[in-house]
Prior knowledge:
Layout: E1 2-7, E2 12-18, E3 36-38, E4 44-53, E5 55-66, E6 73-81, E7 91-93, E8 110-120, E9 128-139, E10 143-144, E11 149-151, E12 157-160, E13 166-178, E14 187-194, E15 205-206, H1 209-214, E16 224-231, E17 237-250, E18 256-261, H2 273-278, E19 286-289, H3 318-322, H4 331-348, E20 350-359, E21 364-365, E22 370-371, E23 374-384, E24 397-398, E25 403-404, E26 409-414, H5 415-422, E27 433-436, E28 441-452, E29 458-467, E30 474-476, H6 481-491, H7 497-511, E31 527-530, E32 533-541, E33 544-552, E34 561-565, E35 571-572, E36 578-586, E37 594-602, E38 607-614, E39 618-623, E40 626-631, E41 641-648, E42 653-660, E43 677-685, E44 691-692, E45 699-701, E46 705-713, H8 722-726, E47 737-741
Parallel strand pairs: 10-12, 13-19, 23-30
Antiparallel strand pairs: 1-2, 2-9, 3-9, 4-8, 5-9, 6-7, 6-8, 11-17, 12-16, 13-17, 14-15, 14-16, 17-18, 20-23, 20-27, 21-22, 24-25, 26-29, 27-28, 28-29, 31-34, 32-33, 33-46, 34-45, 35-44, 36-41, 36-46, 37-38, 38-39, 39-40, 41-42, 42-43, 46-47
Amino acid sequence: MSQIVSQTDDGVITLYEDFTTTPSPAASPSPANTGIEFPNVGFEFITQFTNLQHVNSLNNLTDTTANETQERFLKRYYRISADGYQWSDYICIDTSTGDLFGFPSINDETVYLELKWVRHGSNTTNIIYLDNVTVTGTWQRNEKYTPVFRLDSKNPVAFYKPADIYKVFKIYNFEVISSGNISDSDLKISYRISQDSGRTFSPFENLTKANITTFKVNPIRFFMIEYKFESTTGIPIDVYTVNLFGDFQNVTNNYQTVKLYGFRSSCMTCLCNETLEQNTDPLHGIFSNFNDILDTTNLGFGEACSVLPENLTTPFTQTQLSEFYKPYALSGALNLYNSLSTSTVQIFGHDVIYFVTDPDKNAIDTNFREFQLFGIVKYDTIKASLDDNKFPSNEIKFSEWDLSIFENFEIQILKSDFKRIFGIEYRPSNNDFLFFCELNRMYQIEHAQPFKDFNNAAIYYRVVLKKYNKKANVQPAGQNAGTIADKIAELTNNTTIDSLFGMVNQIDIEKTADKPQFTPLSQDLSRVDVNVNIEKELIENASLVISKYHYDLGTATYSTPAVVYSITDSEVEESDNRAVVSWIRINNISVNETFSIINNMDVINNKGYKIEINNGNSFDLNFNGATFSMVYPALNENIWYCYTTNIDQRQQTVTQFLYQRGAEGFDASRLKSSQLVLLTKQIYSLIPSEFELENIPLQVMASDMRQTNLRLFSDVIPEDKHISILNQNIIRDTGYLIMADNSNNKVILPNYPPSND
């Protein structure tokens, strides 16, 4: 019986228990079922999860059972305790949904959970088996909402997200201001970034100068950052701010251009410009003591103020400046204007359901300076007003230029309403659309701009609408994509071309077959030299063709270069990642022989990386002199395996994987599934490092092994994408591919120089 309790940084807690290794309480189970047995009606089983920390709620239970029917089933119950001695009453769990109804809001830091299964039903035959159970919920992340907070032994971890929205163009350093003189060994800080309004975040990675300055930031999208603080020593630490230095625009503060991005717009720093330029440490930022800010010789960001000459006039004090007449201080009048506009719209405005779109950050056409894909990310009801309530008449309009079937018309939407409902980072754009409830029609935005009238203040948007047409490049996105799609379908039911001609259109699409054509190249653009035989063999996985050719690395002299590539990987920074994929088959396993998968190593300076199999079962990755060994004792001869490794310097880990097809020893094309079997996976800690190689080729060394589909990537491969990539014969260029070798023959044509005749 194994229990696993995991808590993610997003506030999700998962409880899991596996019963398949638990001895049976009744008769021995059959070979097909090894979980908890329920042999008769009334038999019950109880398990507990104890000492759960910082639990906020537990919401759902799922379990895996066998032999349950409508006449023979299990009822599920739960109860909780704060100390493990005094328990609540048992509460029944909904069998169909798994919802834990009645679970209270927990304020205590510790909770005990007890689960109970009881067999019920009129059918007394057969045995019901319980294999495992999973309970999901939320835990109380120590989220801070004030800029100054304390870490100690009781609360060693905290999360903080600056409230202001920024645009980031360049980051060249960072500074941590806290109580006392601390270093990064006392306080571990991680960060993650979102550029789609918090719908998705990058993985948490350590806040180092190498990481934060090389993070790929899209300068035309809004920037949100969340910090995770961890006290490694338990001593009390007051965190005042984390300052990023670079080129920024504060979107919340009317796009003000600033050089400092901290917890709040008024953050101060202990540094001057010379200090920032002199700090060349490639890994660490700057840790400053809060007391340094109180030094009167240093007044914040920029160079420390010099002593003023005596002959200059003493400047006015803030008290004196506040008494001056300010002719443009019309905040009171602007507030009154805004209040009157808001009241008018609330009384005379019409309810519209507004759909906000946001460009997809992964679909930017930098050549044409435009976004190609847009996601529908939010929708809500907002008030809109029309001049004199003049709705369009939908008459046909002719002009000397074109024929407009439907008339455009203008509405007004308050800026304050739009900001309150959708957030500061959004404004009306020409891909947005809305449903006019009064007209029962959908319209899309053709043009929108803030209208400035009184004192050059923009109180509302002037929005020009036109007839709605569904666009293929505008699709629901984000966590609420399903809800948004359902809402659009509800409003446009039986009114769009897709709904009216969808079936016919689908038939036309299925008639068109996308058959890729593979032709041999007349020049080998990736390999310099191939010193081994290329064998023709169809390697299949169910209906998929993995490869048609492979190298027989044993046909060259042992440990000499078998394949030498023209593509090099000569420079890796501390923030760069790498991933390697290769299909391999060992002919004869030898304890004293080394089988090379890839070699990019400067052996004299011990820089670079190489991957080898030693002793017939140890996959050894050498990265800048550090060796990471993954041992799989059951490695067999003449079996195709797929080896995958992720060198993640940003997360400071190395992960190695070993896969094989679903079954070996017979025709692999007869497999029913192309899913690969994960044989082993091992994770290691990595200290980030860098290298620069000179005249070191990327190569594979000869050994008694066969190899194909060697791929090298400039970033890690997510584990959920492994199966898809490993089953590809011709891999797509994802933008991270450095080298791909399918071990195929290239047709080398003679190159005749042009004749002088």
